[in-house]
Amino acid sequence: MGLPEHGTAVSAPGKVMLAGGYLVLDRAYTGLVFGLSARINVIAQEIHTSPGVHLTEIVVESPQFLDAQWRYGYHLAEADGGIKVTQLQIGSRLTANPFVETTLNFALTYIARTSKHRPHHAVKSARLTILADNDYYSQPHSTTTTTSPNSASPPSNSSSTTPPASTLNALTTSRFARFPVPLSGAHKTGLGSSAALVTALTASLLTHYLPPTLFDIASPAGKTALHNLAQAAHCAAQGKVGSGFDVAAAVYGSSLYRRFSPSVLSALPEAGAPGFAPALESVVRDEDGTIWDTEIRKDAVSLPAGMAVRMCDVDCGSQTVGMVKSVLAWRAREKASAGELWDELQRRNEGLAEVLRGGRTEEVRGAVKGVRELVRKMGVESGVPIEPESQTELLDALEGVEGVYGGVVPGAGGYDALALLVKDDRETEERLEEFLERWSKEKGSRVSLLAVKGEMEGVRTEELKLYEGWIR
Ligand SMILES: Nc1ncnc2c1ncn2[C@@H]1O[C@H](COP(=O)(O)OP(=O)(O)O)[C@@H](O)[C@H]1O
Ligand SMILES: C[C@@](O)(CCOP(=O)(O)OP(=O)(O)O)CC(=O)O
């Protein structure tokens, strides 16, 4: 299998919110968000059907997982409902992927409105291949590895995109691991796979179907359209409106984030419903800039030279939804005291951002301590284990490792991977790995350093050759 000549590739980063979890749900507060070096990559290619065959099909696949192919036909929904896809059955199985399906409905509808052609002509058959960097999922026991991105591709085989099982060991030393399970069986590490996926898939579809004059991923206007469209699709697929910081990180990378008003998306009809297409187009275009009130301050976020954001996987994610409900219920109940706590926590979160931006390395430890103190207080008062005791114990112990400036339970907290601010050198990494190995043995748990690092850049185009062996 050689390298396909045609196609486009894009990638979008995962996220970690170092400070501002819960607060960021309210526009009065902000979140300190980092993009991550772990990316979701999507490659788009035309499918050439045999002469005389008119079937139009969109095939989406995730060749790292078992049974991860989703095929769709589509039609133009009546009464301006836009393009609506219908999943096609392969054999006896039909596994839905709501994030993929919703993204197709939203992106194809927008593309059909934007391109000058008639909708059916604009959208030809295509194959979209999704490749997720290894750190999105906890690696199977025996194959754990911390490889740097861009290392060797998997060995190619003759016709299938799924390399044979006999090469499994070789594969895990490559950039994209092959998992011996379906997607539903993978253990997420909490880096925001669905937001990065929706963003990368949307960007890939826009790049593939629209000429550069109508969509350019590198331009500010292109990023704005992508952000608006991906936020709308992600919210619809999730069935709730979160703060959207994860989609913002996937598009823009690291930033100080203020959310959009939830009302921005509340009037949008369901995909396929009457009036969906024009409503989506106007919300995405936001021509006079009055609809979206998101604030993305990229200049407000940076790290002191020689410092990195690293993540420590504890291999047991948490249920964010239940935690959010309980924290918000506490805030509504205890208006005055919760309000005071949030205002002070916001000041400390901004303080941490300032210390990092100003390169004041020696103040990082104190700033992180101050934030954690109030996060724990919020947990105790709301009765939600935001920084559970086992995580407190681990974070405190990690502070004793030379080269570690501090760490937090990011985002909603709980048992998702911890975020650490560390000295960015091999010695610190080795000390951390040794420490975590010892800790795992002593506590009978499985904590490990992920290869991923904080990164400033958001969505971008990639070279096809990075995916050699995975695409046909
Ligand atoms: N590699 C992938 N290929 C295809 N779909 C994916 C992939 N990774 C994630 N998804 C989609 O995202 C969903 C996971 O979303 P969610 O549970 O919100 O996790 P997260 O917290 O990582 O965003 C999956 O069920 C699937 O629909
Ligand atoms: C509570 C929050 O403010 C932050 C949640 O951050 P996480 O990083 O924990 O998110 P998930 O990946 O969705 O679990 C909710 C929000 O901002 O939407």
TrEMBL record:
The keyword Translocase does not apply. Residues 366-438 form the GHMP kinase C-terminal domain. It catalyses: (R)-5-phosphomevalonate + ATP = (R)-5-diphosphomevalonate + ADP. InterPro entries: Erg8, GHMP_kinase_C_dom, GHMP_kinase_C_sf, GHMP_kinase_N_dom, Phosphomevalonate_kinase, Ribosomal_Su5_D2-typ_SF, Ribsml_uS5_D2-typ_fold_subgr. Residues 142-167 have a biased composition (Low complexity). It is an enzyme of class 2 (transferase). Keywords: ATP-binding, Kinase, Lipid biosynthesis, Lipid metabolism, Nucleotide-binding, Steroid biosynthesis, Steroid metabolism, Sterol biosynthesis, Sterol metabolism, Transferase. Pathway: Isoprenoid biosynthesis; isopentenyl diphosphate biosynthesis via mevalonate pathway; isopentenyl diphosphate from (R)-mevalonate: step 2/3. GO terms for biological process: ergosterol biosynthetic process; farnesyl diphosphate biosynthetic process, mevalonate pathway; isopentenyl diphosphate biosynthetic process, mevalonate pathway. One of its GO terms (cellular component) is peroxisome. Residues 187-253 form the GHMP kinase N-terminal domain. GO terms for molecular function: ATP binding; phosphomevalonate kinase activity. Its EC number is 2.7.4.2. It comes from the Eukaryota. Residues 139-167 are annotated as: Disordered. This is Phosphomevalonate kinase. It comes from Cercophora newfieldiana.
